[in-house]
Structures are given as structure tokens and as C-alpha cells.
Design a protein that fits this description.
about 290 residues, three-stranded mixed β-sheet, single chain, mainly beta
């Protein structure tokens, strides 16, 4: 071991910096004022502690017994140097580059509080991306949710989206394009616009994608009269077919609104009841009269 190499390093100082999605898309320079402690003049080694920052003392703990203890030097306040300090106000220009991400850092080297004999730490601004009313971001991609009527889903739509740089995008469906309530295997139904996501940090001319998650709004019960239903049945593919059945043998039922969270909670309260109890009920203990074989 060659001993200590170079001066000790002071602590870094971190500041959260809230940034809008617009500023992360377009880039921005923010001016921020900081206050820091700085050393005035040239520090001299403390003569009290010989620059150690601490002094050793002997303390008697019993007759004929002493204890050696170390305490911080009161003359230099533990710094090992005699010096004058002052407060300094400094304005920093924080450059928010296009495409920067949440928790990314902007570092200013050696601008934390100064201490004699110690390498000055850094000031670090940590980007905190604000939530956006229209877009959600993941990496370089953007996502927005669009609700369309059943009419629009089947016959087409056009709507304008204001992008993060102020441009107006007219999103238009293609002829014959159908928007479905959900994708394969029940996943959300999503379409994409290429090159309309976030700029890539360090290469802002390469952009991610803009994903559009669709929700289809169906008519409510009673919204369609019999005339409209007849027209739809004639126009749309795969209409419902008449079913032949014997009214004496088949019971007709109707559907009611339901919540899937209630699935499994049907039947009488308590689950079973009556003279027969389920031996698998929670709790594991049978109640009532017990029978013992003699």
C-alpha cells in the first residue's frame, strides 16, 4: 500500500429538476442560481492539530489508568486548515438536451461547497420528467389513448393532435380500415405512426414511434331503433341467424349487466348452508354435532 493518493473528495450535491415533456422533446436551457461556500485566499495548516483536523488527549479514568482519546480540533473545526470562508451566489445554465430521460443527470464538476484540503464535489441536477395530459413516454416512443365511436371505428375517422413541438398532426384512417375493440388474445388494440415519437438523445434526428391505443365506444341499450337495427343487419357481415327450437323444450333467458369481479361469488351467502357443510371451508374446523365411532 502506497498510502493515501491525492486529496479526499467532498460530497456531491444533488438537485431534482422538474422538466416538461415538451422541453425534453424540444430541448431547453434553464438558468438556476445556487449558493455555495468557497475558500478565501490560501489556507494554512492548523498549528493546533498540525493539519490533522483532530487532537489526541489523555484522560484519567481511574487511579493510575489513563485513556487516550481523539477529538475534533476546535481551532480549525476539524478541517486541518486555518482559512476564511464566504458564501457565493452563482448562476448555472443547465442544458436540457433533446431526448433526455427521467433521472438522467446534468453534472457541473467541482461546484459543490469548497473545503480546504478536500477536492470539491460536483453539483448534479437530476431530470424529473413531468406527467403529460396527452402523451405517455417510454424510451423514445410516445403513446396516446383515443376513444372512437363505433361509427368511426367502422367507417373511418379524422382527428387533429397537437404535438410536443406545436405541430398539428391530422391522423386519418385509410379506406376500409376497421378499428377493433381489442387486439389478439385480448391485448389493447394499437396502431402506430412512424417517426413521431421522441428524439433520440445524442441523435435527435432519429425519432421513436407514436403509438395510438384505441378504445371503441359502443351505443348504449336503446340507442338504436328497430329501423337502424334492420339496416345494420342488412349491411354488416355475419348477421345473427334464426334459430329453430321447440318452445316446449327450450327456455329463453336474457342477459343482465354484470361485473367480472363478482365471478365466483354467486349462490347463497355462506356458500352452501343447509344441513350439509363444506369440509373445505376456510378455518378448517367443523361446527355442530360431532359423531364418534365406538
Amino acid at each position: 500500500g502506497g498510502g493515501r493518493r491525492g486529496p479526499r473528495r467532498g460530497d456531491d450535491v444533488q438537485h431534482p429538476l422538474k422538466v416538461s415533456l415538451e422541453d425534453l422533446y424540444n430541448g431547453k436551457t434553464v438558468k438556476l442560481a445556487i449558493h455555495r461556500s468557497v475558500v478565501v485566499g490560501n489556507p494554512t495548516k492548523c498549528s493546533e492539530c498540525d493539519g490533522q483536523g483532530a487532537v489526541m488527549e489523555l484522560r484519567q479514568i481511574a487511579l493510575g489508568m489513563v485513556q487516550q482519546i481523539q477529538r475534533k480540533c476546535t481551532s480549525c473545526r476539524g478541517t486541518g486548515y486555518d482559512c476564511e470562508m464566504k458564501k457565493e451566489r452563482k448562476v448555472l445554465e443547465v442544458n436540457i438536451e433533446k431526448g433526455m430521460r427521467h433521472n438522467q443527470r446534468v453534472t457541473f464538476r467541482g461546484l459543490a461547497d469548497e473545503r480546504p484540503g478536500v477536492e470539491t464535489g460536483d453539483i448534479v441536477f437530476v431530470v424529473q420528467e413531468k406527467e403529460h395530459a396527452t402523451f405517455k413516454r417510454k424510451g423514445a416512443d410516445l403513446l396516446l389513448t383515443k376513444t372512437v365511436s363505433l361509427n368511426e371505428a367502422l367507417t373511418g375517422f379524422r382527428w387533429i393532435v397537437k404535438h410536443l413541438d406545436g405541430r398539428q398532426l391530422l391522423i386519418t384512417s385509410r379506406p376500409g380500415e376497421v378499428i377493433k375493440p381489442e387486439g389478439p388474445n385480448g391485448v389493447p388494440y394499437v396502431k402506430v405512426v412512424d417517426n413521431e415519437g421522441m428524439p433520440s438523445h445524442g441523435n435527435p434526428f432519429v425519432k421513436g414511434k407514436l403509438y395510438v391505443l384505441f378504445r371503441v365506444e359502443f351505443p348504449d341499450d336503446g340507442d338504436l331503433d328497430e329501423g337502424a337495427v334492420s339496416k345494420l343487419r342488412a349491411i354488416l357481415p355475419n348477421p345473427g341467424m334464426d334459430v329453430e327450437y321447440d318452445e316446449e323444450e327450450v327456455e329463453e333467458v336474457h342477459l343482465e349487466a354484470a361485473d367480472v369481479k363478482a365471478f365466483g361469488k354467486g349462490g347463497a351467502a355462506g356458500g352452501g348452508g343447509g344441513a350439509y357443510d363444506d369440509s373445505d371451508d376456510e378455518g378448517g374446523q367443523q361446527q355442530g354435532v360431532q359423531c364418534q365411532q365406538s
